[in-house]
Design goal:
The structure is a single chain. With about 350 residues, the chain is an alpha+beta fold. It has nine helices and 17 strands. The longest helix is centred in the middle third of the chain and has 23 residues, at about 210-230.
């Protein structure tokens, strides 16, 4: 999604932001940096930008009252794009704003980097971009160096791993009126009480493109099969796997999604189809989001979702059976002599 082969790190500001809830403070740099050392410049670009190469979701800035200028980061980014001379002062404002909103006790203090990049590529086009990055995790490193007739060894505490960016976002100078194109790195967003980056600090909503539409409907269908069906029907695990396999086949082979076609070809049961459509409607109402009925299928989204569509039948701790094809060739039975369930697998030859 993001390529930085032609990019240039033009300016960088570094600040330290602690946690107000833990009685920590923030420290702001007096000036920004222009990185003249080519090796350091390349290492910084690797640290900041390489995690975004596999990011597909594109977000936009949002605000509850629909006034984008009341979104603080949107407003500051817009000012920087309009006048590069405001870069450092606005980076300081970003740091103080982060200090105010990231007030959960579990938020770790750390450095905040604000960078200005030239010629970053997203979706095939080159744009200037503002990067905002956060390093919270520190590690210890050994340093080996020549000494006398051999080598000496020392260590450095509180170092930063250049292959491990804790949080980041890139704001591309395009589509300003819609809230810019924004991509995000935040591995804690679904797992931590301290998930403040995307929702409180940046205030983002996902762009409603085909990638998002494909991902949404696949997520809803997977949850329907793995959780909802059991509430209404007695469904064997092999039948669930078959339903997931058939849906994946549909998304891989079709160019466009049509909900009626999908339901008839994949679910192929009137009661099941009605239940799926009711579940989709209740999901839309509960989460205030629209799941599209027709759209062009995104192959990137299908590829990403494929790893979550499990076709594995787990039997105690002894066997994992991978089911990829005709479920009629696997039959569940009960062995009264052993007092255990069993499966029969039919095949022509071993491979």
């Amino acid at each position: 999604m993001v390529s930085f082969f032609e990019s240039n790190l033009a300016e960088l500001s570094v600040h330290h932001v602690g946690n107000k809830a833990n009685e920590e403070y923030y420290s702001l740099s007096e000036s920004s940096m222009h990185i003249a050392d080519e090796m350091l410049n390349q290492l910084l670009k690797q640290f900041f930008l390489s995690p975004f190469q596999k990011v597909n979701e594109v977000y936009r800035f949002t605000q509850h009252n629909n006034d984008l200028n009341s979104n603080e980061i949107y407003r500051l980014a817009t000012a920087i794009f309009a006048d590069g001379g405001l870069f450092h002062e606005n980076s300081k404002t970003m740091a103080s704003y982060l200090f105010e909103v990231a007030d959960h006790p579990k938020v770790k203090g750390g450095e905040l980097y604000v960078a200005y990049f030239e010629n970053l590529q997203i979706e095939g086009d080159l744009h200037d971009a503002i990067g905002i990055f956060r390093s919270e995790s520190k590690e210890s490193y050994f340093k080996v160096y020549p000494e006398n007739d051999g080598f000496g060894i020392s260590y450095e505490q509180q170092g930063i791993n250049i292959n491990k960016l804790d949080k980041g976002c890139l704001i591309f100078n395009t589509e300003k009126e819609e809230g810019y194109k924004v991509v995000v790195i935040d591995p804690t967003s679904r797992t931590s009480d301290a998930a403040y980056w995307k929702d409180q600090f940046l205030m983002l909503k996902i762009r409603n493109d085909n990638f998002n539409k494909t991902q949404n409907v696949m997520d809803v269908y997977k949850t329907f099969v793995t959780e909802k069906l059991d509430q209404e029907f007695d469904v064997e695990k092999t039948d669930k796997i078959d339903l997931l396999n058939r849906s994946m086949k549909y998304f891989k082979e079709k160019e466009t999604f049509d909900i009626d076609e999908f339901a008839n070809e994949v679910i192929a049961n009137e009661e099941g189809i009605a239940l799926f459509k009711d579940y989709k409607q209740s999901y839309e109402e509960e989460f205030d989001t629209q799941i599209a009925d027709n759209f062009d299928i995104s192959t990137a989204a299908v590829k990403k979702q494929a790893k979550d569509f499990k076709s594995i039948l787990k039997l105690d701790k002894n066997f994992h059976v991978y089911i990829h094809g005709n479920k009629e060739l696997i039959q569940k039975e009960y062995d009264a002599e052993k007092g255990m369930n069993c499966y029969k697998l039919y095949f022509k030859e071993e491979q």
